[in-house]
Amino acid sequence: xxxxxxxxxxxxVRQEIRKVTWPTxxxxxxxxxxxxIMVFLAAVFFFVVDQVLSFxxxxxxxxxx
Length: 65
What we know:
The protein has helices at 6-19, 25-60. It is built from two helices and no strands. By secondary structure, the protein is mostly helical.
C-alpha cells in the first residue's frame, strides 16, 4: 500500500476539485424542480395503485360496501 504525506494528499485533492464541472444556478434550479415533479407523480401513482389494490382486496374478501 502506498503512503502519501498529508501535503501531497491535499495537493492531489485540489487538482481533482479543479477538474469538477459544477452546475450553474439555472441547471440546479431546473433539476430541483424536475425532482419535485417526479416525486409528486410517483406519489400520485402509488396512491392510485394503493387505492385500486385496497378496493380489490375488499371486494374479494366481501368487505366492500
